[in-house]
Amino acid sequence: MNEVNYIGEQIGWQYAGNSFVFLSFVAALLASFSYFQSANSNELLNGPWKKLGRIAFSIHSFAVIGIMTTLFCMIFKHLYQYHYIWEYSNDAMPRRYTLACFWGGQEGSFLLWTFWNVVIGNVLMRTSKNWEAPVMTTMALVQVFLASMLLGFHTLGTTIGSNPFVLLRETPGFIGAPMFTNIDQPFDAIHYVTKLAKTAQGLNPLLQNYWMTIHPPTLFLGFASTVVPFAYAIAGLWKKKYGEWQLDALPWTFFGVMILGTGILMGGAWAYESLSFGGFWAWDPVENASLIPWLTFVGAGHVMIIYKARKNSALSTFVFPIITFTLVLYSTFLTRSGILGNTSVHAFTDLGMSGQLFIYLIFFILLSIILIAVNWKKIPRDQADENLWSREFWMFLGALVLLMSCIQMVVTTSIPVTSKIAGYLHDKLPVFGSALEKLSKQAPPIDRIGFYNKWQIPFVILVLLILSFGLFFKFKNTDMKQLWKQIMFPLAAAIVFCGISAWALKETNGFYITLLFMSWFAVCANFYYWIKNKKSNFLKAGASFAHVGFGLIMMGALISTSKKQVISRNTSHKSVKSIDESFSDETNIRIDQGDTLKMGDYYVTYTGKRKEGKNILYAIEYLSKDVDTKKYTPQFTLHPIIQLNPQMGNVAEPSTKHFLNKDIYTHITYADPNTLKDENPGGKYAMTRTNTVAIGDKMYSSRDTITLVSLDSHIDLKKYSLKESDIAVGAVLSITDSSHNTYRAEPIYIISGNEVGTIDDTVSKAGLKFTFSKIDPKTHKLDIGIAEAKLVAKDYIVMEAIIFPYINILWFGCLIMILGTTLAIRQRILKSREAKNSQVTANGTKA
Amino acid sequence: MRIIRNFALFFMVLCTSLVNAQANAGGGIEMADRLKADGKIYVVVGVVLIILAGLILYLVRIDRKVSKMEKEIEAEKQEKIMKKTHIIALLVIAVAFGVILTSLSNNSTYASFKEATDHPSSTYHVVGKLDRSKAFQYDPHVNANLFTFYLVDKDGNERKVSLGKPEPDDFEKSDQIVVIGKANGNNEFTAADVLMKCPSKYTADSIPTQKQSSM
Question: What is the ipTM of this complex?
């Protein structure tokens, strides 16, 4: 067969990309092996092996950056002949989303993860000193697995990894498409490259958002940082140094807690601001998948503090980081294997990597279990029982409560997995038939948000209780009288604040009041602790601020969720309650253009819409009504958006008005399909109404105010192909519509000999046609005819409006928690350095 | 005795909050409805109570032993005592067990329309395909919160489905649909929510059609 010539293809990128992918994989393998050898060999050989490991890891780092640069350039150059580029970008997308495209797909997000691991690995290589070889062995091993995700290597009937450098014509599903096989005679050439720009898919419109540029990198840096304590724990087990690594891993753990926490909160803010979840947290499986490892990560940080202070709970300092890392892998498996397809709104589609991900997961679980089992007897156990009135006891209990809350989330989130496994076992196993069948038909909870809230609130209450008292306890033992004396003041303050806020919010649910009280208590107690015990020293505020922040987040979440008020209540139409009791009239309401409906304390008008690029902006005006004068005063206007996207379907984006004490969220749940197409009033006009007016008079159409401004006698006769002898007069009209847009129109009146004629003027944007039909010389009045465009029906939208009270407490809490954790990291690093210095000096004096 | 007292306290807080959760859930949220309906909730409650009773008994016994030992310890300090951490571990296991059991029994199940019709009081997830031969209706002028369509389940049974929400975006493009709700008397299905699965984009279809139009 003749070699076909694909015109315009740029194959070089593929070669470059694949070389880098292969290099990164091999170099990671070599790095892992060298570091392994270095850690296992005697003093003589350990140096050279370590050197080799460093070189290999540096090559790996170079290769990963090479892959990223290649892919980035390809996106930037719009090389649509590559599947990844075709799938996630197109010409219509603004340049600022190039980065978002980069990690829009699975391959790109794996690459992002790999990149952060490279960054962390390079820092570790330079800072971990004695721990370098064993820690970097695990780091490099993780990189081997991550790099293999990009290999796209066909062997034994399966593919390892998914390669982002595959040409579209080589992609399964596209192979053999006519476009790639139609040969343009007589040149033996196929011109398909230039035709691809039209079909390129582009990033899912939901992801074309600035959050998409900052949320994934933050989240993945958080995920990547979980590997550090894990690698240290594995190194500790492997080298049988059970108690020295915690000090080094602690700053990393809190760093990860801070970054991952920030990433999760960014996700929440994104969901709240521009996705239509109707809240900041929807307990979506994908959201849970990121929250669960964060909770165990927080637990890991705290048990390490216990260990550092008291040399207690050594086993937990291994277990928590291992669980955390495993949960990160598990959540990767959940979100990327396609198993959540039926239950989550934003899981990735399956790329056929689920098997590989599963092996990855099992490998690290087995490795950890075996290492723990081998060392089981040697891991130091607590010599004495912890004192009940000690900080370590309650800290540990807090970590356990976090673990409990995780178990509930993992079990419920994993229902699609367990039902799949049960279904498989049901087909294969002869026993437990009915139980397995039942399990295989399990579906996720119906009212997901309600279900999780009910389960998690008790855990939250316990956690808040523990972290209110927590800092007042001292390590080892606490004088309880002293503690009560100290806690009295914040306790009293919390009771007062809780009383006031519960009264103000008219909260009657005992369960919620308990949570409200606990969050107030956590805020007051930790703030008081900082003022009293840390003498308001900002740099020592870490723990207190992190705890205050957590309390505020819970308070904000509680108030904004439990007191959330849907104001778009449908009142004027047939009730859906007659169809089913569970149906609610209280969410969506139809509003016609120009109508004003009462929503909560506001009166809401849909004033109109305009098109900006591919977005349709709907103007929703909120008005207030004066009781006495019955006059409406505009308060603010929101512009929820519908983004037109013929390839992936239209997407609605809510708009929210932020006040200090509440947010008003407005979302279009449905828009008149006729008006989503390009606007065209149809050119058909209703009957003309004639107004007799003088200059300066006003006329009205159903929506607009029209003023006769002046008469214009300087008409360009040639333009209207009139004779020199004709007399033409124009009536200059100014039109102002209900959205305060102004247009001009000039209908013309002609006297041609004995005949009179008219030239109409239309203003299509306002849907009006004007006719200047008569001049009365006696009264100096004109007859202006106005015809309005016949609309098929009034334009309407279906919208939803929700008030979230005091949601700013939540965002403020987020900032405080992030600030607190950052301060804690700083302090941990300082303390870790101090400890090392004192060790060095101690050794020095000994020598 | 102090240990016991405080543990009992902690334990009670934990229990009451969980029981509270259940009681609270009784109102709006479906929790263990199936079990309640089947009367099996008593079995679950019974099992949980037995575990609790066992644990409390165990705690009391340990406490006696401990106080006995405490005297001995005064004499010889090497004596090993039951650690608090062990008690916590047991507690954790008990709570974890309870959590897993209840959260697994709480949820709705996938079913066919026939099953749903047989049990009109239970909520089900039904997976099916849209019947495109029959029109789906959404008229915000009548009611903005009502959308109806016809769905064929995996057994081939068809029901009219009423959804208490506006028509979802791109509904007509969806391939597989999961409706979550109950059967009602008129041989219809009322859904509180729908989940749509859009057809995979990984097909060659999108290319040839484009090609025809461009060539």
Answer: 0.70
